Amino acid sequence: MIKKNSLKICSDVDLSSYNTLGVSAVASVFVEITSRDDLLVLADQDFFKHHQPFILGGGSNVLFLDDPSKAIIKMSVKGKDIVDEDAQYVKAQIGAGENWHEFVSWVVENNFGGVENLALIPGTVGAAPIQNIGAYGVELEQVFDSLELFDMQTGTFKTFYKKDCDFGYRDSIFKNELRGQVIVTNVTLRLSKLNHIIHDSYGSLQSYLQEKSIQNPGIKDVYQAVIDIRRSKLPDPKDIGNAGSFFKNPVVSKEIFEDLQSRFEDMPFYEVSENEIKIPAGWLIEKTGWRGKQIGHVGTYQNQALVIVNHGNASGSDIFHFSKQVQKSVKETFGIELVPEVNIVE
Q: Would you state the pLDDT for residue 5?
């Protein structure tokens, strides 16, 4: 074990408590980062010349197929600060290791607006821009200002603004060109102080508010609605292992959608653009008979077919092979290739 400035590089670390699927895996090299300086220490030790590490946040969007071949860096940099503000907006800088939902709760408690629709999304703040997380009609890029990252090749810190990030649907430059090359250390978001823009037109959110007779919802109403809806649909990883939505909602051309709709009239959809339509992956999976189905220790959640769950002692490969069967059924029925939202780590 190497120790410098409280930095510890450990070996043979059990990762079962570091991933929400509860998959058993062992990291041959594991280091937890609690400050920016820790990364400089690693660079001084030539760590990045010998390792191309996998960066682990909250472990809520990862599937370990087996013991990882790469070193694991667990990002635990904390901190929440208001770094700039005017009459209308504040800019909040948040450490990459902060829990995302706890951050959203802090935002709402301070009556800042912009992320209330993203409540109860599992994971850390640092992972949010990498995935461009989104829910109930809102995506992170809508409130994103900038982030700081550490370039493992040069050993330097850099600032990326929105224009640099190539945000797309559950996508960014960090999942593509810069994959495996950088580590997000903090994120700065631009949040409203006054005249909050309320996003309440998403189907299930609108229905919830109508049922509660909430006609002019504020950010706290939306925040609580999202929490209640998510809890009714999604299992708590503390109770049953899961990584939330296992697959992305597919986006197809309008031509393909119209052909599918002629055969499946009840197919739900959301218009992404004039020529693109998003189809709920959960509906596709449910239509092929996979909702609540279990094979061995792996299954789909009974209340939401998009969630693959570990019923106990399932290996990473068990979950992976189960997901492949789901993909095959959807492809054969609808001609749509489901793409995993989780990171598959070998």
A: 54
- Of the candidates 38, 55, 75, which is a domain's last residue? 75
Residues 118 and 56 in one domain: no
Looking at the fold, whether 86 and 18 belong to one and the same domain comes out as no
Catalytic: 36?
no
**Domain count within the chain:** 3
Residue 200: inside a domain: no
Check 16, 170, 204, 276 and give the catalytic one: 170
Model pLDDT, residue 203: 86
Q: Report the distance separating Cα 263 and Cα 164, nearest Å.
A: 41
pLDDT, residue 169, reads 87
- Using CA atoms in the order 116, 34, 67, 326, what is the torsion angle rounded to 10 degrees? 10
| 159, 174, 192 - which closes a domain | 192
141, 276, 286, 341: the catalytic one is 341
- Phi, psi dihedrals of residue 22, rounded to the nearest 5°: 70, 30
User: For residue 132, what are its two tokens?
Assistant: 């461009």
DSSP 278: E
| Local confidence band at 8 (pLDDT 50, 70, 90 cut-offs) | confident
**Banded pLDDT at 6 (limits 50, 70, 90):** low
Which ranges of 1-150 does DSSP label H, i.e. alpha helix?
36-44, 47-50, 100-109, 127-131
Of 76, 146, 245, 323, the active-site residue reads 245
Helix (H, G, I), strand (E, B) or coil at 218: coil
Catalytic: 341?
Answer: yes
Range of the domain at 138: 80-192
